[in-house]
Design brief:
Layout (H helix, E strand, L loop, with lengths): L1 H6 L2 H4 L2 H49 L9 H13 L1
Length: about 90
C-alpha cells in the first residue's frame, strides 16, 4: 500500500522509471504473499490428513485388539459396593 501510495505522489508519478520499479516490487510482494498462502494451505492439509490417518489407525487397533482391558467406571464400582453391602 505504501508503494502504491508513493506512486501517486506527483514527483514520483512524473518519473516513469520510479513507477516501473514500484510496480516490479509490488508484483514481487504479491508473488511472495501467494507463495506463503499456498504453503499455509498445504501445511493445514497435511496436518489435517495426518490427524485423520492417526485416528483411523487407532480405531483399527482398538477394534482388532480383543485383549484390551476395560477399566470399570466409578459408577460400576459404587454399584458393586452397594450390592456387597446390602447382602
Amino acid at each position: 500500500r505504501i508503494l502504491t501510495t508513493g506512486e501517486s505522489e506527483p514527483n514520483a508519478a512524473a518519473q516513469k522509471q520510479a513507477i516501473e520499479e514500484g510496480d516490479r516490487r509490488i508484483d514481487s510482494l504479491d508473488r511472495e504473499l501467494q507463495a506463503l498462502k499456498n504453503e499455509m494451505e498445504l501445511r493445514r492439509a497435511i496436518s489435517s490428513n495426518s490427524l485423520l490417518v492417526t485416528l483411523e489407525r487407532q480405531e483399527v487397533r482398538n477394534s482388532s485388539n480383543q485383549m484390551q482391558q476395560r477399566t470399570p467406571s466409578t459408577d460400576e464400582g459404587m454399584n458393586s459396593l452397594n450390592q456387597k453391602g446390602g447382602e
